[in-house]
Design brief:
The complex is a heterotrimer of chains A (249), B (290) and C (319).
Chain A: E1 12-21, E2 24-34, E3 39-43, H1 50-58, E4 65-70, E5 73-74, H2 80-86, E6 88-90, H3 103-113, H4 123-136, H5 152-165, E7 170-174, H6 182-196, E8 201-205, H7 209-215, E9 218-223, E10 226-231, H8 233-238, H9 240-248
Parallel strand pairs in A: 3-8, 3-9, 6-7, 7-8
Antiparallel strand pairs in A: 1-2, 1-4, 4-5, 9-10
Helix pairs in contact in A: 3-4, 3-5, 4-5
Chain B: H1 2-31, H2 39-57, H3 61-88, H4 94-117, E1 132-135, E2 138-141, H5 142-164, H6 166-176, H7 178-183, H8 188-201, H9 203-213, H10 221-235, H11 240-260, H12 266-280
Antiparallel strand pairs in B: 1-2
Helix pairs in contact in B: 1-5, 1-8, 1-9, 1-10, 1-11, 2-3, 2-4, 2-9, 2-10, 3-8, 3-9, 5-6, 5-9, 6-8, 10-11, 10-12, 11-12
Chain C: H1 3-25, H2 30-54, H3 62-80, H4 84-105, H5 111-130, E1 141-142, H6 155-179, H7 181-191, H8 193-198, H9 203-222, H10 225-229, E2 231-232, H11 234-237, H12 240-253, H13 259-278, H14 281-298, H15 302-314
Antiparallel strand pairs in C: 1-2
Classes of the chains: A alpha/beta (249), B mainly alpha (290), C mainly alpha (319).
């Protein structure tokens, strides 16, 4: 990786982003910097703007006001696939696999389109690339299984694996643990920890507080589209307004 | 100026008639999300039913339309059941095949009509057809006035049905939140089937109006794909008052083009407007559905 | 070139050789008249599948593209007496432009809305042509065939050969798209457009590309029709029957593989030719409707899907 030396420069800078839907303000003047290699937790009650914020980062939505800067480049107006190619990958709250494809083919899409520059030239090399990611995510045995036949936890892992196959610098995990059993939560959490150990910056949106507390170096809490607290996990949890926001809903 | 006024008045009358033929689609497509491209074919089928009763038994077209309404209701129930079992029940990717299926149905109806009645235009006879009403310089065909009155009544009745009756409210609810309805102990499929039956039943009167206003031929449904979808999409999917307003806009636009540019451009009006609406405001000009 | 590709190109060469042989051996003109129509539908169905099958955008505007192809040829013949090759090339260019415009529609519309919009495009174009006096307006226009070029001794035979060339071009294009990264991208966006976009697939660019290629091929397939019929009029050139027939052919064959629309077009095309001769053209449309409904209900993956399932079942995998 280049630009290691300039650790002061944030990997992602969200500057005064506002997003409205009709009259409803989903995000209200949100600014935050994410440092390279950081494990960042994003929490907030339902409808607080978490998903809107990551949609504005990943390009599923565009912020009308404010800027999103990634690795020093203004990406506010870029379409999603360009952002993916620049190194932003995400999973979805409700998994969105390519249903007509196998697990390996799902990842192949990412290899074909997002990591073109990385020199996976031959078909064999591409296949190796896919298999190595499946190995790391514990899905190797499912490579040739149709994506529609995966269990819930396997689907979550496949979403993360597909995101990994785009060779991201920043990975956004949108409630990858929702609806999983506690042992499955641990599996996914371990996986995210492992990925974070591979120099990938991770933003994790999660409702399971234990997971957020264990995972994050910093936590940000949104409520009604505004940042109400940001800092170390313990500090944010202890915050009066955070507790009110959660108990209030 | 008089010409323009004339065109506008005729357009409003025509528009109310367009509302009547679009109401069913406003329910089936607007509220139930069925991409019902066979709706105009059902409409023509109803017109031929009316023609048959008028031609063979000399029954007044409007009365004939009423007589076939129960049959159409049953046809609607059956059609929805078939559609549901083959597509909606199987889930997600009904889209392509659902439309293809309905197009197939439309073609089958078209040919069956041709085999039974031939390709010629057919019209009905009634005392009010052929007469005209004069107001100053203006000349208004009585058949259009009849269509206007009946169409307005039909629209108001259906709007009242959907807003005032228990079943009508259930239909509106099923369009918005099936899950909530299921939790309340109602069967969404049963309600949608009923709604589709209603949507088809109103075609009895609509079909009668169609053949009162102008002669009908078996492939006329193709022109009405544009008109009905234009009205329903412009209305903002599922709004009855919206349907009426959108239909009047279309009627006036067609009427003005007809009297200024010429009849040969008329077929394109509805489709061009539809294209414009889809491109600029896919959620419809009037209101929006969440 | 992979082994599969070698087999494919050998097959294509054999097909063209057989076509040329036919034109030299068979004296009766009827097989060429009927065969031309079937070949034309193969091109249309294969081209349709590039957008409708691979990308999942159901284009009901086949008749628009076909009609524009016809009228591009008519215009060029009337205006400058252009030769057939120029007519086809120009039609392909116009088709690509129209495809580009339709592709932009996908930016705002999906599903049924896109389909209805393509019907709308058809009627708007048809109405414009109807009002265009130069090419004959609503009444249509007669077209004089130029003398035929050797080695063919009959114009219809030559058109038959030309349409066969277009079949090879269309099938080769569809096949290339299917096995290349473009095909994978289209499949991904068909499954889930947002997920595809977030996995790096430039969805808009791919959709527009599919529309352009599909449109160019459809218009090219329509161009020789003016010479074939020696006549053109808007209501037949833009007839909705083309759209539904082509849709039916693709769905009957199956849309996941380029072979699907070919099989569907041959099956339905031959049936229609036989029916048109033996019974009537109305029954033709009836059969079209019934086959469409039957296949959509009973064999959602088309014939190819059905066969595939059978083979897998025989092989013991309960897929």
């Amino acid at each position: 990786m280049t630009a290691r030396g300039i650790s002061e420069q944030p990997l992602l800078r969200i500057d005064a982003v506002t997003k409205r839907f009709g009259g409803f303000v989903a995000l209200d003047n949100v600014s935050v910097d994410i440092r390279p290699g950081e494990r960042f937790g994003l929490i907030g009650p339902n409808g607080s703007g978490k998903t809107t914020l990551i949609n504005c980062i990943s390009g599923a939505l565009r912020a009308e006001v404010g800027t999103v800067v990634f690795a020093g480049e203004d990406i506010t107006r870029l379409p999603a696939h360009m952002r993916t190619r620049r190194g932003i990958a995400r999973s979805f709250q409700i998994p969105r696999p390519f249903k007509s494809m196998t697990v390996a083919e799902n990842l192949m899409v990412a290899i074909d389109f997002a990591s073109v520059a990385d020199g996976f030239v031959s078909a064999a090399q591409r296949r190796d690339g896919v298999m190595s990611i499946l190995m790391r995510t514990g899905l190797a045995s499912k490579a040739d299984v149709s994506a529609t036949r995966l269990s819930q936890v396997e689907l979550r892992k496949m979403e993360l694996a597909r995101a990994m196959a785009t060779r991201p610098k920043l990975l956004i995990s949108d409630e990858a643990m929702a609806g999983l059993s506690s042992s499955e939560v641990d599996e996914v959490l371990d996986l995210l920890m492992k990925l974070a150990g591979e120099d990938i910056t991770i933003i994790m949106i999660e409702h399971i507080m234990q997971a957020v507390m264990r995972f994050s170096q910093r936590v940000m809490c949104l409520d009604a589209g505004r940042i109400i607290a940001i800092g170390g996990p313990a500090e944010v949890m202890a915050n009066q307004r955070v507790q009110e926001a959660y108990l209030g809903t | 100026m008089d010409l323009l006024l004339n065109a506008v008045v005729l357009g409003v009358l025509l528009g109310c008639f367009y509302a009547a033929v679009s109401l069913g689609l406003s329910v089936s497509f607007g509220l139930l999300d069925v991409p019902h491209v066979a709706h105009p074919a059902f409409l023509i089928l109803a017109s031929y039913g009316v023609f048959f009763l008028n031609d063979s038994y000399d029954i007044d077209p409007l009365l004939g339309g009423l007589l076939i309404t129960p049959l159409l209701f049953l046809l609607g129930l059956a059609a929805y059941r078939l559609y549901y079992e083959t597509f909606e029940k199987r889930g997600s990717d009904a889209g392509v095949r659902g439309i293809a299926f309905l197009f197939g149905i439309a073609f089958i109806i078209e040919v069956l009509i041709i085999l039974q009645f031939g390709v010629d235009q057919r019209s009905v006879s009634a005392s009010y057809i052929g007469k005209a009403w004069r107001i100053g310089e203006m000349r208004i065909p009585v058949r259009l006035l009849v269509a206007f009155a009946v169409a307005s009544a039909l629209t108001i009745l259906l709007a009242l049905y959907l807003s005032r009756t228990f079943m009508g409210r259930a239909i509106r609810a099923v369009a918005q939140d099936q899950e909530a309805l299921r939790l309340m102990g109602a069967n969404p499929v049963r309600i949608k089937q009923w709604a589709f039956g209603i949507a088809t039943a109103v075609l009895g009167i609509a079909g009668a109006l169609l053949i009162i206003v102008a002669p009908v031929d078996p492939t006329l449904d193709r022109a009405y794909i544009g008109r009905t979808f234009c009205v329903v999409v412009m209305a903002g999917l599922g709004s009855m008052t919206g349907t009426l307003i959108a239909a009047i806009i279309l009627g006036v636009a067609e009427s003005i083009v007809l009297s200024t540019v010429g009849a040969s451009w008329a077929p394109a009006i509805s489709f061009a407007m539809l294209l414009g609406v889809l491109a600029i405001r896919p959620q419809g000009l009037l209101g929006r559905r969440s | 070139m992979s082994r599969n590709s070698v087999v494919f190109w050998i097959g294509a060469a054999l097909f063209l050789a057989a076509v040329v042989l036919m034109t030299q051996v068979i004296g009766n003109q009827y097989p060429f008249f009927a065969g031309y129509v079937i070949l034309q539908f193969i091109v249309l169905a294969v081209a349709w599948s590039i957008l409708g099958g691979y990308a999942g955008y159901v284009n009901f505007g086949t008749s628009a593209f076909f009609g524009v192809g016809v009228y591009t040829a008519v215009f060029l013949v009337k205006a400058i007496g252009a030769p057939l090759a120029v007519q086809i090339a120009a039609a392909a260019t116009v088709g690509a432009l129209l495809g580009f415009a339709v592709g932009l529609l996908t930016l705002r519309m999906q599903g049924i809305f896109f389909s209805i919009a393509t019907i709308a495009v058809t009627i708007v174009i048809e109405t414009s042509v109807t009002n265009w006096r130069f090419v004959g307006g609503a009444a249509g226009i007669q077209i004089q065939r130029p003398p035929v070029m050797p080695p063919f001794d009959n114009y219809v035979q030559m058109l038959f050969f030309v349409q066969a060339l277009l079949v090879v071009l269309a099938v080769a294009t569809a096949r290339y798209i299917q096995i290349s990264w473009i095909g994978r991208g289209l499949q991904a966006l068909k499954d889930d457009e947002l997920a595809a976009e977030c996995t790096g697939v430039p969805t808009l660019r791919l959709k527009v590309l599919a529309c352009v290629i599909s449109g160019a091929l459809m218009c090219a397939a329509g161009a020789p029709a003016a010479m074939y019929l020696q006549y053109a009029d808007p209501s037949s050139a833009f007839n909705l029957n083309y759209s539904v027939t082509v849709l039916a052919m693709s769905l009957i064959g199956g849309t996941a593989h380029w072979m699907g629309p070919v099989v569907g077009a041959i099956l339905l095309g031959v049936t229609q030719q036989l029916l048109a001769v033996t019974i009537s053209s109305e029954v033709n449309v009836l059969v079209l409707g019934i086959m469409l409904v039957l296949f959509v209900v009973a064999a959602p993956e088309g014939l190819l899907g059905l066969i595939g399932r059978l083979v897998r079942y025989r092989a013991g995998g309960k897929a």
